[in-house]
Predict the structure of LLM class flavin-dependent oxidoreductase.
Amino acid sequence: MKFLAITLIVHAPDPVTGIRKSTGDRFREVLDNALLAEELGFDGFGVGERHERPFISSSPPVVLSHIAALTSRIRLFTAVTTLSLLDPVRAYEDYATLDHLSGGRLELIIGKGNGAAQRDLFHVTPEDQWDRNAESYEVFRTLWRQDKVTAATRFRPELVDAEVWPRPLQQPIRVWHGSATSKESVDLAARYGDPLFSANVSNPIEPYAELIRYYRERWEFHGHDPARIAVGAGTAGYYAARTSQEAISAYRPVFEGQLAFQKRLGLEPVFPTLEDFVERSSALVGSPQQIIEKVHGYHEQFGHTVLHLHADAGGLTDTQHRDSLALFQSAVAPVLRREIPDPPFPWGPVQAGPTPVPVAADR
């Protein structure tokens, strides 16, 4: 199994202290967490993309480029690249450049993105967002693989023998498809034979497991080898301590602060108590053995071989944050690496495979 640390770069008051860091300090915290993730032995570090409050993660290529300059081993992920909002040509230029600057350590997780405010900002509607996402991915994918591209597009000017530079380092790049609540992303991933990354954060396990089962069905429908399926999954929270009592005690103020923040935003909590959150959500809060058992429980339904943890302290003290991540790498990760297989492909530059049928052919 492989492990990522991921941040959406939320810029909000600390859920426990109520203090909000400056924008500059928040970005420096992201860089420090990326360095910590590499130091502790995480396999990847991901930066989300959002274009609305309370996030300041509107430019993942810039942040990841800085992280690439500070690190040497850890793989760099987008989590997610919101292709429904972006010009695929411009997105390609940014990420092909980052591919070189990172020495081929880049992987993409793509998705349409959520939130009415960012849809309004980019004039994307609920009715066309999935078509935009699919078209942008088709164009992006083709640009990565071909030196000259012709594409009759609906949502941007058509391309005729277009040459876009620089040409990438990895050929092709691995692209994961972020999956949260709908079948459209799952269908797109299965059609192209791409890996799936389940958000697995906001709800209990059932809706995510259902989408992953659907992904496996569609994967086989499109004629792909079942042995090549790769699934990743997120977690709703993380804190490990030597005993479950220590973990629950330390995490309670974090959860209560997050609960209050949700209520201020007018959101109805899915998990109203910490005990319910630990029991029914994907949160990993407890002793190392409890966390190992919970990951196995999710693996029985997901079959996932990649797991992400939150990179941010999110209300924990710096010492709690570092010690908990270190405990994960010393007491949890080694066991899960032994007991759950790695993804069915090398954790490095992608090797080219067969070209699937374009999405447009199925419309």
About this structure: Residues 318-339 form the longest helix (22 residues). Residues 109 and 176 are 4 Å apart (CA to CA).
